[in-house]
Design a protein that fits this description.
Structural class of chain B: mainly alpha
Strand content of chain A: 25-35%
Distance between the termini of chain A: 32 Å
Order of helices and strands of chain A: EEEHEEEHHHEHEHEEHEHEEHEH
Radius of gyration of chain A: 24 Å
Helix content of chain A: 25-40%
Largest interface: A-B, 30 and 29 residues
Number of strands of chain A: 14
Oligomer: heterodimer
CATH class of the largest domain in chain A: Alpha Beta
Shape of chain B: globular
Radius of gyration of chain B: 19 Å
Structural class of chain A: alpha/beta
Distance between the termini of chain B: 30 Å
Number of strands of chain B: 0
Number of helices of chain B: 9
CATH topology of the largest domain in chain A: Rossmann fold
Order of helices and strands of chain B: HHHHHHHHH
Largest sheet of chain B: none
Helix content of chain B: over 70%
Number of domains of chain B: 1
Shape of chain A: elongated
Strand order of the largest sheet of chain A: 6-7-8-3-9-10
CATH architecture of the largest domain in chain A: 3-Layer(aba) Sandwich
Amino acid sequence: MNAAVSVRSASRWYGDLVAVNDISFDLGPGVTGLLGPNGAGKSTLLHMMAGLLKPSSGQIHISGEPVWQNIGMYAQVGLVPERETVYPFLTGWEYALASARLQRLPQPEVAAQAAIDMVELGDAMHRKMGGYSKGMRQRAKIAAALVHDPHILILDEPFNGTDPRLRLQMTTMLKELGDTGRTIVFSSHILEEVEHLAEDVLVIIGGRLAAAGDFRQIRRLMTNRPHAFTIRSSNNRALAAALVDRPHVTLVSFDSDTMEVKTTDFGAFTEAIAPLIQSSGVELHELQPADDSLENVFSYLVAQ
Amino acid sequence: MNRVLISLTARQLLGRRRTALIGFVLALPILIAVIYRFSDEAGGDTSTEEFAIGLVGTLIVTLLLPLVALVLGTAALGAEIEDGTAVFLLTKPIERWRIIAIKTGVAAAATAVLVVPVTMATTWIIHGGPTADGLMLGLGLAALVGAILYCAVFVALSAFTSRALIFGLIYVFVWEAFATNLFNSLRWVSVREYATGWSDAIISVTDTDIYDPRLAVASAVIGSIVVLSAAVAYGTRALSRFEIGERA
């Protein structure tokens, strides 16, 4: 049986710039998060999957059919683009209804109303979208993408500009859609967004697929990577002397009034540091991770 | 489906500011015609036909018509591609030829609705009533054909490049206004010549010093069909290969 989405050695380059580099994966029912920092190639990959960009090499299939120049596939695919452009002169209702009619649905009014209800846009459905907030426009775009009940839903940074209520509601809705056999793929550069929603994750960095699979395994890999902490205390040298005895501490270095500690075991370090400070009799002024940016996390994953 | 496409395109095209600006520009020839009608010039050396050809044929059909078609033709599809709303249409199971044909049809209808009445009204005012030489109907027909052909070309152009407006201006002001006048053989590749060629079938003062279309009716009809078909085919091909964010 064909995978819902199949990406095989897909690359996309613009002149000398390689945006997506030789990526392969299959997606089945459920929610998959496409995680990566800004500029990693997430949107390029999603646009290729949505048939809006031609792969420079490789192939992308949806339900066994190539996506490029295949307009028939849009009957089973919904796309929520990142760019928040909607027709400002249409109301939310007109937008969803237009989407239903363009999908040639037998009962477009019923489908449009169901989609509007699903994203809870009922109160504002008869207002022109030009006056919508960012979150309301996002709801309208999702309603238009869901109106034909697609098997595959592609969302590019769907949580951008959304308030916590909409975020929670969208998370619940997308989970439910995933649980009912639809294939949902969404991109994000925020780890927590992916953590709350996706069972499977694709980590993309520098156009390459850095990791793919179960989110918990990848999260563990991220957590167990070497970590660095910056510490400022009343007596850095005394604290350093206590720390170097620990097997998971690999390096302690000083820089004026701060010191940097590197550890191979995040969990063991965070458990040990508080009693160690107490027993050393030093006063802790500051303790913070030194390299916890997403880019660092991704760089580590790529190296693995 | 067609109704939705037509409605979306028409509502996007006929925004209040754009329509008001075009209406203001198109009021100018009517104003000039009124001034002519009530001035001494109306019975002067310049014949009414010559004045009508000068004002309607030159100002409206060869200048204002392509400009209005350029504004509406490039806005019909190009504006949607520019602001990203085109993704809404392009991710629906709609044949690309249908999008191009409907965008062309709506832009052409809007152009014709704005320009053809102005063309005919201006001729009427200059003559002080209907013309026996078929000038009013002939120029109206030229404006109608021009609206269709120009819009087809400009919609196709906007499916191909985000700089359709610039290329359109170069086409109107360099190619049609200059090059085709300089080299007679280039009349075969000019929308203006195809449009005015149709009027030869109606206007009785053709082939005179007053009015002499450079293409015969048969040539104009064949040329128009070729231009329209080629523009829709080319626009469809360009839209089928459209890639998001990759416009030159």
